Amino acid sequence: KCHFGPRCRFLHDVGEYLAGKPSDLGQRCVLFDTFGRCPYGVTCRFGRAHLGDGHQNIINASLAQQWEGKLLVRNNLPKELQQQLRKRKFIFQKAEEYLRGLQPRGGGKGGKVTEEQEVSDCTAPQEGLGDGDTPQCPEQGEDPQAEAPSSRGDGDGPSIPTVGPLTDEDVTKLRPCERKKLEIQGKLYLAPLTTCGNLPFRRICKRFGADVTCGEMAVCTNLLQGQSSEWALLKRHHTEDVFGVQLEGAFPDTMTRCAELLNRTIEVDFVDINVGCPIDLVYKKGGGCALMTRSNKFEQIVRGMNSVLDVPLTVKIRTGVQEKVNVAHKIIPKIREWGASMVTVGE
């Protein structure tokens, strides 16, 4: 029974629907032949291959059982994680620990620090402090990690919980030599391509010989908000044996939190920072190639993301920002010192 009654705009008679449906495009359904079942049922444009008596969807039980439990596409966004991100209940413990060591400079209106402000000294209210609160610099005798700020980032949430047994992971950090290595010498690397390098395209390139693949540029702020469309850029096919994701952002807080989020929730072999995007939408916010002219922010981002990741961190830059003014040769040694494992240069 349809609850909408006569107001319903859909057909409820399968026979009537099939009578008005366009003819099938072929005799065989590739989904049914591959997986033993077609999720589209009567709406499939190859439906005659898997529709039986009474228009019932046929299932090849033996073939479907072979694929049971196998994840063809990984790095999906679970509903529970999406709700945590939207309600700001996800705890960024490592990121908050790193961000507490940064020294803000210059407060915003009303004493509230926003991500658009520069961060370099202790003359401004720190993130999460209210009006009239005065931060203490580490040089003045106060331990910068004595108190944990709000894990939600809004200044009103509870502190990071510290109750429970102390484990080795709490006190031991991976040394550079113990971190996962990115072995891509002599391999063909398919560079990340915005609006083009989606999962189907990468599958085709893998079939033609690509060894290393990387997802499209994903905006950190959208990932932290739990946007499904942005998380779709992180999806990984099971045939992508060496796979990385590329992140775009302009500030250490969002980039570091996003790096920790992905490090704990998805399967990835490396994380790449986009410091080469020239479009105005990204450049005017201080991201993309604009980071090449903001060395302090650039350094804080690389060091922060490297401190929370268990996989190698790579950086994509340009030869320069201004025409005929190349600065890449001056920046690459610094990026290496900050902790990046690889730098790629695009003109």
UniProtKB/TrEMBL annotation:
Cofactor(s) required, per the database record: FMN
Annotated segments matching region Disordered: 102-172
Reactions this protein catalyses: a 5,6-dihydrouridine in mRNA + NAD(+) = a uridine in mRNA + NADH + H(+); 5,6-dihydrouridine(47) in tRNA + NADP(+) = uridine(47) in tRNA + NADPH + H(+); a 5,6-dihydrouridine in mRNA + NADP(+) = a uridine in mRNA + NADPH + H(+); 5,6-dihydrouridine(47) in tRNA + NAD(+) = uridine(47) in tRNA + NADH + H(+)
Recorded superkingdom: Eukaryota
GO BP of this protein: mRNA processing
Enzyme class: oxidoreductase
InterPro entries: Aldolase_TIM (IPR013785), DUS-like_FMN-bd (IPR035587), tRNA_hU_synthase_CS (IPR018517), Znf_CCCH (IPR000571)
Gene3D superfamilies membership: Aldolase class I
GO molecular function ontology, one term from the record: flavin adenine dinucleotide binding
CDD domains xrefs: DUS_like_FMN (cd02801)
Residue span(s) of domain C3H1-type: 1-15, 28-53
Enzyme Commission number(s) from the entry: 1.3.1.-
Residue ranges crossing the lipid bilayer per the database entry: none
One protein family per Pfam: Dus
Zinc finger motifs (C3H1-type), residue ranges: 1-15, 28-53
Keywords for this protein: Flavoprotein, FMN, Metal-binding, mRNA processing, NAD, NADP, Oxidoreductase, tRNA processing, Zinc, Zinc-finger
Family: Belongs to the dus family. Dus3 subfamily.
Function description: Catalyzes the synthesis of dihydrouridine, a modified base, in various RNAs, such as tRNAs, mRNAs and some long non-coding RNAs (lncRNAs). Mainly modifies the uridine in position 47 (U47) in the D-loop of most cytoplasmic tRNAs. Also able to mediate the formation of dihydrouridine in some mRNAs, thereby regulating their translation.
Protein name in UniProt: tRNA-dihydrouridine(47) synthase [NAD(P)(+)]
Organism in which the protein naturally occurs: Xiphorhynchus elegans (elegant woodcreeper)
Phylogenetic classification of the source organism: Eukaryota, Metazoa, Chordata, Craniata, Vertebrata
